[in-house]
Specification:
733 residues; binds magnesium ion; alpha+beta; three-stranded antiparallel beta sheet; 52% helix; 19 strands; cytoskeleton; Kinesin-like_fam; disordered N terminus; binds adenosine-5'-diphosphate; Kinesin-like protein; single chain; Kinesin
């Protein structure tokens, strides 16, 4: 502010705020409006009623000639005032035949009414409502000299002449002291409006010799149409004495600024406001109310008497803002009027809530009933009759102090945390630990991978964990969706191909082992056969002298045919000729192997032209097997490396997610150079993996080819041997 502190004076704003913040039915202080019993205050804390209008007749001076009027107090709730227009006055105007006027008031205080009675009847109920949290306004309306200032502020001579302001201050502080159930704060402001300009009467400099020396107060309207008064100081008053000092300061400033030349007091409006805020200890709800005590400018008018006008109808206000006040009041009294011209003058703007808004308003029509002022008195009464039609809607002004609310909520959170810790038996921090996060990641992933439709993800009754799992799941989903076509499908492909490679490898290994064992068996067999042959040769040599090995072998066979002792040998030779034909199945028929044939085959094989090719191929095959083996190992290595890199990326994600949970301001989507590097590495590894894999595939083809070649060569060798053997056998036969 806008020192004024009139914030929320706007009709709509205040009403809205009231509606928004009133949390529970409010009990309003009893005694509110006790003078003329108003309907009981509703629990909803909204009071709808017309402006109360009272009349006060100023004592007629000794030298004044009293006009004729009568007060009828018979009725309980209303009093009526009848004014008789003097003959001599009425006669002067054409078309004016009326001689008496009757006006109704809430109550009429005749000349002898004292200040204390005025306070008790008019001001005290309003003060009580202000203490309860409702806005209140009391304004005095009447011609200059009719007793407005006397009524509102009071007379300077006697203590008993104290007016409504000092008495209200005294009463309010007395009540505040009595009520220890709430914490109250009171401020006062004092505004003078002269010629559409606002002046702060509580300027503490005491230097004002003219109104213009006082700080100028201007009106500001916020988007919610709340009125704010810029530059109006709001002075805190802790007790009655401080408040009265401020009132005195304002009145002094008002007096000094007024010179006989400028009759400010008759043309200006003075608004003394008591601002009360109350709060129950520990509660975040604050009640604020404002009590305006208004001394309006003189309502006297310029009458165009004698110019053919009508008495009391052609008269114009001297003070323009009172003219606007009347316009506002006429507009408010009319039904279905949507636009109320509050903004036409500063005074109506400031008093907007007091007229047709969120306020309990009371008007005192001050009347000077001497003969000369009858017309003005009738004007005042007519004005009062219109004001009496205006309905106001006073709302209990409650609002929540956000700071107190925050403190209260914080306390509530702590209490709940304590309770939770008590129930669960574990202290919970706001964040999950790294281990917990990793564990939750695992659980979530396992849950996602689980094909069992009845599997559940149970992380216990811990909202933090549940939320974390959802976040992790989302991350996994997003991640897999983004890289669905790249990484995920690549993964599957890799998995497939690596499985294939492994199968091939196994097959090759098996084959190699089989071949190795076959070769071993053959070698062992050869060794055995060789030994047998040597033994046989040794025996043979011992019998028939020495001869060349191969010739002997053949000749032995021939001799055997003739010698019955060597019958078995002959049979063996026969078997051999058969077995030679079955050579491709040699490994499975080892038992039937003939020494001579084997020996001959070995020799044949050694000298055969193809044997070199076979040997070469055998070496090549061995080499290729070795190559395939090491390549297979390398492929495995690369695959492991890729998996490792992938693991690193996942770890990285977890870390970043944890970081994002710890400080949500960190963007998760931010570019991560480390991850990018890892991905690049994976790509590299994949390249070499593919390369090696293709190489391995090529090797496999080559190995298979070589095996076929060897197989073919073996078959050819055997066939050649067979042919040669049978030729030799025939020759020999
Ligand atoms: P206004 O403020 O309406 O111009 P004032 O309050 O200044 O009128 O009153 C004019 C004079 O009449 C003052 O001297 C005041 O003391 C006196 N006066 C007004 N009302 C009363 C009253 N009810 N009893 C005694 N004197 C009064
Ligand atoms: Mg006055």
């Amino acid at each position: 502010l806008t020192a004024g502190g009139w914030g929320g004076a706007g009709r709509s704003g205040a009403a809205r705020r009231g509606a928004r913040w009133v949390a529970c039915p409010v009990t309003v202080a009893t005694g509110c409006r006790e003078v003329a019993p108003a309907p009981p205050l509703p629990a909803g804390a909204m009071v709808k009623e017309t402006i109360r209008v009272y009349a006060r007749v100023k004592p007629v001076g000794r030298r004044q000639q009293a006009g004729i009027y009568s007060v009828d107090d018979n009725e309980k709730t209303v009093s009526s005032l009848e004014i008789i227009v003097p003959r001599d006055l009425a006669d002067g105007f054409v078309n004016n035949k009326r001689e008496n006027y009757k006006f109704k008031f809430q109550k009429i205080f005749d000349q002898e009414a004292k200040q204390d009675v005025i306070f008790e009847s008019i001001a005290k109920p309003v003060a009580e409502c202000a203490l309860a949290g409702y806005n209140g306004t009391i304004f005095a309306y009447g011609q200059t000299g009719s007793g407005k200032t006397f009524t509102i502020t009071g007379g300077a001579e006697r203590y008993s002449d104290r007016g409504i302001i000092p008495r209200t201050l005294s009463y309010i502080f007395e009540q505040l002291q009595k009520d220890s159930s709430k914490v109250y704060t009171t401020h006062v402001s004092y505004l003078e409006i002269y010629n559409e300009c606002g002046y702060d009467l509580l300027d503490p400099r005491h230097e004002a010799s003219r109104l213009d020396d006082l700080p100028k107060v201007t009106i500001m309207e916020d988007p919610d149409q709340n009125i704010h008064l810029k530059n109006l100081s709001l002075q805190q008053a802790a007790n009655e004495e401080e408040a009265l000092n401020l009132l005195f300061l304002g009145d002094t400033n008002r007096m000094i600024a007024e010179t006989p030349m400028n009759q400010a007091s008759t043309r200006s409006h003075c608004i003394f406001t008591i601002h009360i805020s109350s709060k129950e200890p520990g509660s975040a709800t604050i009640r604020r109310s404002k009590l305006h005590l208004v001394d309006l400018a003189g309502s006297e008018r310029v009458t165009k008497t004698g110019v053919g006008g009508h008495l009391l109808t052609e008269a114009k206000y001297i003070n323009l803002s009172l003219h606007y006040l009347e316009q506002v009041i006429i507009a408010l009294a009319e039904k279905n009027r949507s636009h109320i011209p509050y903004r036409n003058s500063m005074m109506t703007s400031v008093l907007r809530d007091s007229l047709g808004g969120n306020c309990m308003t009371t008007m005192i029509a001050t009347l000077s009933m001497d003969k000369r002022n009858i017309d003005e008195s009738i004007s005042t009464c007519r004005f009062a009759q219109r004001v009496a039609l205006i309905k106001n809607e006073a709302v209990l002004n409650e609002e929540i102090d956000p700071r107190l609310m925050i403190a209260q909520l914080k306390k509530e959170i702590q209490d709940l945390k304590d309770e939770l810790a008590l129930v669960t038996g574990e202290q919970r921090t706001a964040e999950l630990s790294q281990e917990e996060q990793i564990r939750l990641n695992e659980l979530t992933e396992r849950f996602l991978e689980d094909n069992d439709p009845e599997s559940i993800l149970d992380v216990g009754p811990d909202m933090r964990k549940i939320k974390y799992c959802f976040i992790h799941m989302k991350k996994l989903m997003n991640h897999s969706r983004i890289s669905e076509n790249k990484v995920f499908s690549q993964n599957i492909l890799e998995e497939d191909t690596s499985m294939q490679v492994r199968k091939e490898e196994l097959k090759l290994k098996e084959l190699l082992q089989q071949r190795d064992s076959e070769i071993n068996i053959l070698v062992n067999m050869l060794k055995k056969e060789k030994k047998k042959a040597q033994d046989a040769l040794f025996q043979l040599n011992a019998v028939s002298g020495d001869s060349k090995a191969l010739d002997q072998c053949i000749s032995i066979n021939l001799e055997e045919r003739q010698s019955p002792s060597t019958h078995v040998n002959l049979k063996e030779a026969k078997d051999f000729s058969c077995s030679v034909r079955r050579l491709p199945f040699l490994s499975r028929q080892t038992g039937a192997m003939s020494l001579g044939c084997q020996e001959a085959f070995e020799v044949f094989k050694r000298d055969h032209a193809d044997s070199i090719t076979i040997e070469d191929n055998k070496q090549l095959l061995k080499q290729r097997f070795a190559e395939a083996k090491s390549l297979g190992e390398k492929v495995n290595e690369v695959r492991n490396k890729i998996n490792h890199l992938k693991g690193e990326i996942t770890q990285r994600h977890i870390q970043r997610a944890a970081l994002a949970v710890a400080s949500p301001s960190e963007e998760l989507s931010k570019f991560d150079p480390v991850e990018e590097k890892l991905r690049a590495q994976i790509e590299e590894e994949k390249k070499s993996y593919k390369m090696m894999f293709n190489h391995l595939k090529g090797l496999k083809v080559e190995i298979e080819h070589l095996q076929l070649l060897m197989e073919k060569a073996k078959v050819k060798l055997q066939k050649d041997f067979e042919v040669w053997w049978s030729e030799e056998a025939t020759k020999l036969q």
